[in-house]
Amino acid sequence: MYLRKSKQERADGREILYLQLAENVWDPTEGRSQAPIVYNCGHADDQQVLERLRRLAKSILRRCSPDEIVADCPDWRLVCGWPYGDAYALEALWRRLGIDAVVRAQASFQALAKGGGKY
């Protein structure tokens, strides 16, 4: 099973995105895989839909940890098991841009200039 986006173009030219839970199933009569929709989640930009998907993800992760999934497949690599929120994203961005090193250097310099010692 997987979560997919589907697009629908309206008569007025607007494009609407929907989120759907789908599953690949082999059809021996057709000789190919089919992807029936298991559940239509709703509009991709609807916050209530996103919150329901977050609750579903939490429920799934309570039953099966990402580490277990990766352990079963040695060629897989766990990149991120769970989003950490705004503070985590900001800290990662600061590190990637090198802002954390600049702030530390400036704080250390200020402390030395005031005679306070090193941080």
UniProtKB/TrEMBL annotation:
Recorded superkingdom: Bacteria
Protein name per UniProt: Transposase
Organism field: Denitromonas ohlonensis
